[in-house]
Design brief:
Helices cover about 35% and strands about 20% of the residues. By secondary structure, it is α/β, with parallel strands linked by helices. The strands form three sheets. Strands 6-7-8-9-10-11-12-13-14-15-16 form an eleven-stranded mixed sheet. Helix 1 (about 20-25) packs antiparallel against helix 2 (about 30-40), helix 5 runs antiparallel to helix 6 and helix 8 (about 200-210) runs parallel beside helix 10 (about 240-255). The longest helix has 14 residues, at about 305-315. The chain is globular, with a radius of gyration of 22 Å. It binds iron/sulfur cluster (SF4). Iron/sulfur cluster binds near residues 151, 154 and 264.
């Protein structure tokens, strides 16, 4: 067990070679422990004491959904990549090269985050900021670029594997604040990572104090993206720094701004521990609005009952269901990914079980380079069957809210696999998307 301090509150975590020892100890399965040792060379894994003691059901491992969410599994790698890493174990030079080559195949920066989302001013990159939608800027505080534990499906996994060229992090609040002062169209700032709540309060204070200060009156909402309530809820309850953090968060609402804590809840069991419920109550007591989101992924939550239970638990705790995302085209997508058709069925079958107040989650949503695209359903059109799609958010605001269509493909898992249904629909896809199908093919017949 390692005591982890990334400029943050002390969390005891297990990572690296101790993971295999933990699995060997808890599951008494040598093959499983070996697989853990192979796969963790490529993708980042870390679990907290809370995860080990309160979330994972060790009697059901490795099939337990929380185990699947957090621990390496051999199916996360293509079998030929698994064998390549396995062969290289024990030879540091060969292993480094094999790991680099396998990581390169896993699309480490989906959505062109390193090229299209980072703003430039006077020819210089504003590091640690992503500004994709006019109203919302994402800020990546340098000390918040890790998490209390790692979700194995994390689309930001590249940040955690120690390659500076794959890392998005700011140079401190000054450059970020200067940028935001020059952008009055920004109403929402999302502090994200990683998880900003790994930071000690004294490191978060300069950001929050500055955001509440002069010149930034246009920032009406401060959002904080976190999975601390699932991985280290004591951070908001009995951590030595908890009281200072809560005072800091309260300063946002006391200043008349909205504080939105964007929780990441993959499975309803994450909301069961008493300490987690205390953390929710503590956040509500300082005036925070709570919103919950997660991707729908195989092995963890690919079941409408799980989503309906999660949304119900969230409503009972005063948390708004927000997004059901589609697993992104990165990392262990081969293990977690689901066809869009299945993701849509899970969303629909879950949402019909909810009362109106529980139907606030949008989904299934793909967070693409162009914007957030939701699958509204399957339509039978004159040219054939189609996915009905809609942008909830977009770089080009004009496309938001307008229905468009892609050729129905029962195997497609991601946006890049979809084909515009007609010439009209091409305008909603990125330049270079595959040619129109459906209606145009029918017209040509
Ligand atoms: S909490 Fe978010 S950033 Fe952290 S590992 Fe999970 S998905 Fe990634």
């Amino acid at each position: 067990m390692t005591t982890h301090e990334q400029g943050g509150s002390a969390t005891r975590t297990v990572s690296g070679r101790r993971l295999a020892a933990l699995v060997r100890d808890r599951c008494a399965d040598e093959q499983l422990a070996h697989d853990v040792e192979v796969v963790r060379q490529v993708l980042p894994f870390k679990v907290s004491r809370h995860v080990i003691d309160q979330l994972v059901d060790w009697k059901s491992a490795p099939d337990d959904p929380l185990y699947r969410l957090l621990f390496p599994h051999r199916d996360m790698l293509d079998p030929k990549h698994f064998r390549a890493i396995e062969r290289a174990l024990g030879d540091p030079v060969a292993l480094r090269s094999a790991v680099a080559s396998v990581r390169g195949t896993l699309n480490p920066h989906p959505g062109e985050q390193l090229t299209r989302n980072i703003p430039h001013e006077d020819g210089d990159e504003v590091s640690g900021v992503q500004h994709k939608y006019a109203q919302t800027a994402l800020v990546f505080p340098r000390h918040g670029q890790t998490c209390h534990a790692y979700c194995a499906y994390c689309f930001r996994w590249a940040q955690f594997v120690g390659h500076p060229e794959l890392r998005i992090a700011d140079e401190g609040p000054r450059q970020v604040i200067a940028y935001l002062r020059r952008h009055p169209e920004v109403s929402d700032v999302l502090l994200t990572g990683g998880d900003p709540l790994v930071m000690r309060s004294e490191l978060l204070e300069p950001y929050i104090d500055a955001l509440l200060g002069p010149g930034l009156e246009h920032i009406s909402t401060l959002r904080i993206g976190t999975k601390a309530l699932s991985f280290h809820p004591a951070r908001l309850v009995n951590d030595p720094d908890a009281a200072r953090l809560l005072r800091l968060l309260e300063s946002v609402t006391a200043a008349g701004r909205q504080l939105a804590v964007m929780l990441h809840v993959s499975h309803p069991r994450e909301l069961e521990p008493a300490v987690t419920r205390q953390a929710v109550a503590a956040l509500r007591a300082v005036g925070a609005q709570l919103w919950a989101q997660a991707p729908v992924v195989r092995h963890v939550n690919d079941d409408p009952t799980v989503w309906a239970d999660a949304w119900h638990a969230q409503l009972m705790l005063g948390i708004h269901p927000y997004y059901l995302f589609v697993e992104r085209d990165t990392g262990a997508q081969r293990y977690f990914g689901l066809p869009l058709q299945r993701a849509y069925e899970i969303y629909r079958d879950a949402v019909v079980r909810m009362s109106g107040l529980g139907r606030t989650a949008r989904g299934p949503v793909m967070s693409t380079t162009e914007g957030k695209v939701t699958v509204d359903g399957v339509a039978e059109l004159p040219g054939g069957r189609a996915f009905a799609l809609r942008y909830l958010q977009a770089r080009v605001p004009d496309v938001v809210g307008r229905p468009f269509y892609a050729v129905w493909d029962p195997a497609a898992q991601w946006w890049s696999e979809l084909v515009p249904f007609s010439r009209h629909d091409r305008g909603f896809f990125p330049p270079g998307a595959r040619g129109a199908g459906g209606a145009d093919r029918a017209a040509a017949r």
